[in-house]
Specification:
Length: 404
């Protein structure tokens, strides 16, 4: 990256770091189970709600107790269950139409990050009927209060129940990008481990590594605070102690509960301290090929940690020790290497590949452009990279027989 571009990026990040203490971050109020939702809505004078989910979550019956509870309390519930894995602008517009036609007054998201992102996008469009989804891309483009929102995660990964981000895909252009605004932080959240019980092992694995990526990128970046460091350390420790157990035994509620807590902590960390190039590249792969976000993060993470080299050793080494992956007294370099080695070993033990098979060389320039556009200047990464340098990372992510 050219010196002037580096200067601009670091100056931009410095301004945001200085502003962190006065920005309106908040945490959602936690509710004790989905049965607490109907009484809350009645207390707020809300008699109609939009439930945003996907077909698989609803097909598994995970929304049935909530739907029954709302019905028993006389609260109308319109259901939008067409959310896809990487939620699209079409999903948001269809959900918005249902919200308006049903007379809904609140939005409840039940599902993984996709359902929660879709619900946030719908809320943004309700708040800003004058603004297209495309025009809300980036930072602080909503700036109006959205309907009351409740997030009920059924996976332990994205932390979207506590973040200000919604990641949306433009299906026409294959461009996946975040909308970031404080008004998108859910008002309430339900962290119920029974809703994640029996989650398929590969979903448990990739969503868990997604949460780890959030914790690591927030921790090694240049915009940490005492709170975000503590949250990232707690998240990394809980993931190191519980992810493989949850992967092997989907009915271990202790491990499931700890993973939900880890995802929540990591969400708090990265929504304040931001993520990095792992996310920028993962979003481009999701937009271009539909690669699931958690899977992309898991594969990409060790490559960037290695590429950052000594620039992240001090912080990554400290996080490795906090997570119990390295030992007190290990040098920053040794602790960092232990952490990267552990990430690769965890991926292998859970069947996560070393490469992204879908990558085609002819698509790399476009994806690198999208990743750079998303990441620079916002993400306070240890080492800045331009489009050319990011393009080289995609080549590393290709299967060896293809990249050579």
């Amino acid at each position: 990256m050219h010196a002037l571009q580096k200067l601009y990026c670091r100056a931009f990040q410095f301004v945001f770091r200085v502003a962190l203490p006065v920005l309106p971050y908040r945490e959602p109020v936690q509710l004790e189970g989905t049965k607490a939702i109907a009484p809350l809505l009645l207390q707020k004078g809300i008699r109609s709600a939009l439930l945003v989910t996907d077909a698989s979550v609803r097909g598994l019956g995970l929304t049935k107790p909530l739907e029954s509870s709302l019905q028993e309390q006389g609260i109308a519930c319109a259901v939008y269950d067409k959310t896809v894995q990487n939620p699209t602008i079409d999903n948001i517009e269809a959900g918005r139409e249902l919200y308006l036609s049903s007379g809904a007054q609140a939005i409840i998201a039940v599902g993984g990050g996709s359902a929660m992102d879709c619900a946030k996008g719908i809320g943004a469009r309700i708040a800003r009927p004058d603004k297209s989804v495309q025009k809300m891309r980036g930072l602080l483009r909503v700036l109006r209060r959205t309907p009351l929102s409740i997030a009920v995660p059924t996976t332990a990964g994205t932390g979207s129940e506590t973040t200000l981000a919604a990641v949306i895909t433009d299906a026409a252009t294959h461009y996946k990008y975040p909308i970031n605004d404080f008004v998108l932080i859910p008002d309430y959240a339900v962290l119920d481990a029974t809703l994640t019980e029996g989650l398929p092992p590969h979903i448990t694995a990739t969503t868990g590594m997604d949460a780890l990526t959030h914790a690591i990128e927030a921790y090694i970046g240049g915009s940490t605070t005492r709170l975000t460091r503590a949250m990232a350390e707690e998240a990394a420790r809980l993931i190191a102690e519980n992810l493989y157990t949850a992967y092997r035994d989907g009915h271990n509620l202790t491990a499931r509960r700890n993973m939900l807590r880890a995802a929540y902590c990591a969400g708090i960390a990265f929504t304040r301290s931001y993520v990095g190039y792992v996310h920028g590249v993962a979003h481009s792969l999701g937009g271009q090929y539909g690669v699931p976000h958690g899977l992309a993060n898991a594969v990409i993470l060790p490559y960037f940690l290695e590429a950052y080299g000594p620039a992240c050793h001090q912080k990554l080494g400290r996080l490795a020790i906090a997570a119990g992956i390295a030992r007190e007294g290990d040098s920053p370099a040794a602790a960092s290497e232990a952490f990267i080695r552990w990430v690769r070993e965890m991926n292998a033990s859970m069947g996560i590949p070393k490469s992204i098979a879908q990558i085609r060389r002819e698509d790399i320039p476009t994806m690198a452009h999208h990743a750079s556009r998303e990441s620079n200047p916002l993400y306070p990464v240890p080492v800045l990279m331009d489009e050319r340098e990011l393009a080289a990372m995609y080549v590393k992510l290709m299967p060896k027989e293809v990249s050579e």
